[in-house]
């Protein structure tokens, strides 16, 4: 089960039960054992579909009690010399109330979303497969992968622009690209592992 210990499968909440991070079971167990966090013992209703998870029972549990809980069929577990310990899916950082902020990850999807799915040279609304990233200052001329130098462009316009500056290709940006505002991490956390209990705390 050593591979389980290193998977990011534990959702971390602040003391107001707002999602703030994702951790490995190893990190979570260390936080619980030092009383920095408590685990949530969650029983989901069987009648609700997975995408609309509903808790039949939910309670914070300290480390001393957690290690005595039975391991259920759906649980990951860590085996010690004395017992199997259930891996929590959600823990609460009991002394932490803050919600950190950060910018979305810089990638083609977030640039496309920032630019409203529109070509930043023509204003045309594009389907995802009709557009591509354009470096305003081309990489061949020292342009960097940065919010301020990347825009969403139609593939046709991007090919025409090539390794030139916009004005050299007879193009003009509709708006100057900027980094988006930082957002609460709660809205940026995604349930990539598909853990049902996380759906109680994430807006997806």
Helix and strand arrangement:
Layout: H1 2-5, E1 10-13, E2 19-23, H2 25-33, E3 37-44, E4 55-61, H3 63-66, E5 77-79, E6 84-86, E7 90-93, E8 101-102, H4 108-114, E9 131-135, E10 150-154, H5 155-161, E11 183-184
Parallel strand pairs: 1-7
Antiparallel strand pairs: 1-2, 3-4, 3-7, 5-6, 8-11, 9-10
Salient structural properties:
single chain, 204 residues, alpha+beta, DNA Binding (I), subunit A, 5-stranded mixed beta sheet, 5 helices
Percent in helix: 10-25%
As for the number of domains, it is: 2
* Most strands sheet: 5 strands, mixed
**Shape verdict:** elongated
Return Rg in Å.
23 Å
Annotation, overall tally of beta strands: 11
- The run of helices and strands is HEEHEEHEEEEHEEHE
Could you name the ranges where pLDDT drops below 50 across 5 or more consecutive residues? none
Widest beta sheet: strand line-up: 2-1-7-3-4
Q: What fraction strand?
A: 15-25%
Number of helical regions: 5
Oligomeric state of the chains? Answer: single chain
Q: How does this structure look, described?
A:
This protein has a 5-stranded mixed β-sheet. It has a two-stranded antiparallel ribbon with strand order 5-6. The longest helix is centred in the N-terminal third of the chain and has 9 residues, at 25-33. It is built from 5 helices and 11 strands; from the N terminus they run αββαββαββββαββαβ. The mean pLDDT is 91. Helix content is 15%, strand content 24%.
């Amino acid at each position: 089960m050593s591979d389980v210990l290193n998977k990011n499968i534990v959702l971390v909440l602040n003391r107001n039960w707002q999602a703030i991070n994702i951790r490995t079971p190893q990190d979570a167990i260390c936080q619980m054992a030092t009383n920095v966090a408590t685990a949530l013992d969650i029983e989901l209703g069987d009648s609700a579909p997975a995408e609309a998870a509903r808790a039949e029972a939910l309670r914070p549990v300290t480390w001393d009690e957690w290690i005595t809980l039975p391991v259920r069929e759906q649980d990951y577990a860590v085996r010690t010399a004395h017992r199997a310990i259930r891996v929590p899916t959600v823990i609460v950082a009991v002394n932490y109330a803050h919600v950190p902020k950060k910018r979305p990850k810089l990638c083609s999807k977030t640039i496309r979303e920032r630019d409203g799915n529109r070509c930043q040279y023509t204003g045309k609304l594009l389907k995802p497969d009709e557009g591509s990233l354009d470096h305003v200052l081309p990489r061949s001329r020292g342009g960097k992968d940065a919010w301020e130098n990347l825009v969403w462009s139609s593939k046709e316009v991007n090919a025409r622009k090539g390794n030139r500056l916009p004005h050299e290709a007879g193009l003009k940006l509709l708006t100057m690209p900027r980094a988006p505002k930082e957002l609460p991490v709660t809205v940026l956390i995604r349930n990539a592992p598909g853990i049902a209990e996380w759906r109680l705390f994430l807006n997806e």
